[in-house]
Design a protein that fits this description.
heterodimer, A: 109 residues, alpha/beta, Rossmann fold, 3 helices, elongated, B: 438 residues, alpha+beta, 2 domains, four-stranded mixed beta sheet
Chain lengths: 109, 438
């Protein structure tokens, strides 16, 4: 028995070689440059877009209220993104580009 | 992609208007700057050179196939401290053990099995047969289990995808492989008393962590987390004791095919009391289903064979008959339906877009009853249990995918140990029908 225990001790102290368990990252990212910034928001239209998480719309209502109090010359348009938060909405993206100069997305709730 | 973010105090959901105004007038809790000013600056402050010409971050450094040799104690610590395990000790994936596991399939070690990401719009990792074997060894599996584990890996589905909600998964095995590796479909099939059920379920967890890139607080934000993530309710369907068609046949496979089916949801309610003793099992199930939001009209019932027999005697000839009855008879007030956060998030946009029945439901008075499980095809049943009592589980799990096990079998037949490991419980599992010995 003593011999068995001793050999187990040796086993536990022996160096072991193990394999790495992680997968290989798949590089799928393609970065786009950001849109040029505006000089100011004065006199411009800004879309406030709720992507769909609960509470986001109500927060953006408060932000719209802030604009009306502090930057009344900025026109805000509060919108819900069509579809749920995981769905693409190409027509809506096109509307934003066409109708506004800037957009603030509310993500999360 | 570079973006300019600002943060509000969290959460905003359910906050009164006055509090939300305070948030807007207050500071970004991350940067400490005035929130509104920060948002304005994000839209007006000139771009930096990095923002104008963003460059890809260098990809993750290529990892060595073999880790630095060390003693067992240190390697166990390494795996736990690096977040490469489920917090429990693992079987160290030595070259020898992984090579032995690879004998459990005829597929080449470098064959790519699939891609997985717990953050499903995040960074996927791809993995080979050998990577799956490494995680199978870590879970304590033997080569006879490897075809089932490879089939799970081939779905590319993580057991717990990234969400602030706390997902749970389930894996059900059908077909001859159940008996060949002595999975438990019968008595206590969901309890920790079966070697195959335990190690296969754990392997899915470890694959989700290591191959799905699960990092708590980064890619995984489940608020409470879920205890089912340890084993994912892994078991087999009790085809032999069931009065109904096995689940894999329902999904288009042949009876003699071996198949894994993966499910995903959040909640499990145990019936506790016996079916049909006071009221019919269908009515009891309807009561339980009313507790769920009925998102996507999905549910999964995991029922003892005795419950299925009782339902068949009541006239439900198929699983689909039960699903149709539930679809028609589970009713909740429209106000309860629209008051659920996930319904608000997912189905309110459909109602706004005029999609039926959501558009109609959205116009109803709050106390008007609706049948929210409007798609009976979303309601599934698997028969599991040892016939000690007609009990069942009602879950909100969705059937995600089914995949063939047989394509992963070794050409020479399952690689079994000379004396396969079986747990010493008083049930017979040799034919896949684990139950109390007659």
């Amino acid at each position: 028995m003593a011999q068995t225990i001793a050999s187990q001790g040796t086993l536990h102290r022996a160096l072991q070689t193990v394999l790495d368990p992680l997968g290989t990252p798949v590089e799928t990212k393609k970065y786009l440059s950001m849109a040029p910034r505006l000089d100011s928001l004065e006199g411009k239209t800004v879309y406030l877009v709720d992507v769909g998480f609960a509470g986001g719309y109500e927060f953006l209502e408060a932000l719209r209220d802030w604009f009306s109090r502090h930057m009344p010359s900025t026109r805000t348009v509060l919108k819900r993104k069509p579809g749920n938060m995981f769905m693409d909405a190409p027509d809506f993206w096109a509307e934003i580009k066409d109708q506004s100069r800037a957009v603030i997305f509310g993500v999360g709730g | 992609m570079p973006l300019r973010f600002s943060f509000t105090p969290y959460p905003v959901v359910g906050m009164p208007t006055a509090r939300l105004r305070e948030y807007v007038d207050g500071n970004d809790p991350v940067s400490g700057s005035a929130l509104a000013a920060e948002i304005i600056a994000a839209l007006t402050k000139p771009l930096t050179s990095d923002e104008k010409k963003p460059v890809l971050r260098p990809g993750a450094p290529s990892r060595p196939r073999v880790l630095e040799p060390d003693i067992e104690e240190n390697l166990q610590r390494l795996f736990i401290e690096n977040g490469w395990s489920d917090g429990l000790p693992i079987v160290l994936p030595t070259e020898e053990r992984v090579a032995e596991m690879l004998e459990g399939t005829s597929h080449a070690p470098d064959e790519v099995v699939g891609q997985m990401a717990v953050a499903h719009r995040g960074e996927f990792t791809s993995y080979t047969v050998e990577k799956v074997a490494i995680n199978a060894v870590m879970a304590g599996a033997r080569p006879e289990h490897f075809p089932v584990i490879l089939a799970i890996a081939a779905t590319g589905q993580p057991a717990f995808p990234s969400s602030t909600t706390s997902f749970a998964g389930m894996v059900i095995v059908n077909g001859p492989i159940r008996g060949e590796i002595a999975m438990n479909a019968g008595l206590g099939a969901l309890s920790p008393f079966n070697f195959a059920n335990s190690v296969i379920g754990r392997a899915w967890t470890l694959m989700s962590i290591n191959l799905g890139n699960a990092r708590l607080g980064d890619t995984l934000l489940a608020s409470t987390g879920h205890n089912l993530n340890y084993n994912n309710m892994c078991c087999a369907e009790n085809e032999e004791a069931s009065v109904w068609e096995p689940f894999h046949i329902q999904k288009g496979f042949q009876r003699d095919e071996s198949v894994v089916s993966v499910f995903r949801g959040w909640s499990v309610i145990n019936s506790m009391g016996a079916a049909n003793s006071v009221r019919p099992a269908t009515e009891e199930t309807a009561i339980m289903l009313k507790a769920f939001p009925a998102l996507h009209s999905v549910a999964l019932l995991v029922m003892d064979p005795l419950v299925a027999k009782g339902l068949k005697e009541q006239g439900f000839q198929t699983k689909q008959d039960v699903a149709r009855w539930l679809s028609q008879n589970v009713k909740i007030p429209a106000g309860q339906y629209w008051g659920a956060d996930v319904i608000y998030a997912f189905n309110r946009p459909l109602a706004h877009a005029g999609v039926e029945p959501y558009a109609t439901w959205a116009r109803l008075p709050k106390d008007e009853l609706i049948a929210p499980f409007n798609d009976p095809d979303g309601i599934n049943i698997v028969v599991v249990g040892g016939e000690s009592n007609p009990l069942w589980l009602t879950t909100d799990f969705r059937h995600v995918q089914s995949a063939s096990v047989d394509k992963w079998r070794p050409k020479g037949g399952l690689k079994r140990d000379a004396r396969p490991i079986r747990m010493p419980v008083g049930v017979a599992c040799s034919d896949g029908l684990c139950g109390i010995p007659s």
